[in-house]
Amino acid sequence: MKVVQTTLTEEEHKLLEEYARRKSKSIKEVVREAVRNVVEGRVVPDDPVFSMPPASKKTGKKDNGSVEHDRHLYGVTS
User: Fold this and answer.
1) Is 64 contained in some domain?
2) Rounded CA gap, 6 and 18, in Å?
3) Is residue 78 in some structural domain?
């Protein structure tokens, strides 16, 4: 085993602590899991981003979404 040390902001540490508590894991386990997921490019299937419904009730294809994304998402014009 190798030891890796880093610093976190108070907010980052709080988020890490809360996540570990919710998952009933140690901070060490959560950090190892996060490193493996990032390095191996894996996703966490129970992440809400993959299970929550779309935030918008509107439907329909937007052909220029990548160009006018602010307008489509927020009603803001460039």
Assistant:
1) no
2) 18
3) no
Check residue 18 and give its pLDDT: 92
> What residues in the chain have per-residue pLDDT under 70?
47-67, 69, 72-73, 76-78
> Is 58 within a domain?
no
Q: Which domain holds residue 44?
A: 8-53
Q: Please report the DSSP string for 19-76 in residue order.
A: HHHHTT--HHHHHHHHHHHHHHT---TT-HHHHSPPS----S--TTTTTSHHHHHH--
CA angle 72, 45, 74 (to 5 degrees): 10
pLDDT of residue 37: 84
Report d(CA 59, CA 56) in Å as an integer.
8
- Model-level pTM? 0.52
